[in-house]
Amino acid sequence: MSTRNPVRTNRDSRSGGLLRVPREVISELKKSTWPSKEEARRLTVMVLVVSAFMGVVLGLADFVFSKIFSTFIVNV
Questions:
Q1: Domain count, the chain
Q2: What is the CA radius of gyration of the chain?
Q3: Is residue 71 part of a domain?
């Protein structure tokens, strides 16, 4: 016969868990270092420029490949 002890749960720790997560999130956010307005603006512009550049490059690649494939498929 097994003499296993039942697992005891602490109700206070379960209910405290719901409030503990937002408190921990706020605590961690307070420890973060946030960029200055100028740095945030500069990084935003950089993301927009790189995104636009990549959009143009991928658009041109799509155009070229679609022309190549349509030429080969139509001529077959």
A1: 1
A2: 29
A3: yes
